[in-house]
Amino acid sequence: xxxxxxxxxxxxxxxxxxxxxxxxxxxxxxxxxxxxxxxxxxxxxxxxxxxxxxxxxxxxxxxxxxxxxxxxxxxxxxxxxxxxxxxxxxxxxxxxxxxxxxxxxxxxxxxxxxxxxxxxxxxxxxxxxxxxxxxxxxxxxxxxxxxxxxxxxxxxxxxxxxxxxxxxxxxxxxxxxxxxxxxxxxxxxxxxxxxxxxxxxxxxxxxxxxxxxxxxxxxxxxxxxxxxxxxxxxxxxxxxxxxxxxxxxxxxxxxxxxxxxxxxxxxxxxxxxxx
Length: 275
Prior knowledge:
By secondary structure, the protein is mostly helical. The chain has one domain. The protein contains twelve helices and no strands. Helix 2 (20-55) runs antiparallel to helix 11 (220-250), helix 3 runs parallel beside helix 6 and helix 5 (104-119) packs antiparallel against helix 11 (220-250). The longest helix is centred in the first third of the chain and has 36 residues, at 20-55. Mean pLDDT is 81; it is low at 1-8 and 173-179.
């Protein structure tokens, strides 16, 4: 008789009462979350060094401009991403083209092209790339949400998509998100767009600042943008999977128990990694 690998692990009381199907789903969520964290580790050293060197050279007033750019990028993405989603009931020319612009891989490729163009001429054109790439990320997040049965014509679902940008970022090592994903999700749930932006911007602004500064050098910035943008989009795609898969589990389980079980599974994954 084969032993169920889920039950073979000592999950303690944290996961008591959850069925094998839900435990398997939590394990998959933990795996995706670890992959997202791996994107941070993969590029943080190179990005950090470059961003720090550029940061010393820019005027203080530009730092405020970066915050403004982050705010604008989020607002543009929220306003426009849903309007570019394909309509399954339409066979028009534009809709057929939109249907071809679907999928996580397509959005990464598109963001890489945008980053190469935006980074070619330094910081000012990079700001334009930021709005485009954030909109691509939002559009992909919305498609992830749809794949889990969410209705993006519902404003609350679109706000949940916007909230994903508050889950740290691929260019930052955010300890609070690392140790309290559920706590962060709770603070970002049930907000109006103005309330949500106040919560998301401080986190997203850090990501944006490092991204813009890394792409700030003309020509070299094109290579940086082409490299970083797919990572930027890929991170939020993975966090969208984490968020919306958890939402599905929360519809049939106690969120507090899910939180305790997920944290236990994450602890066990990381203890194995350190061995």
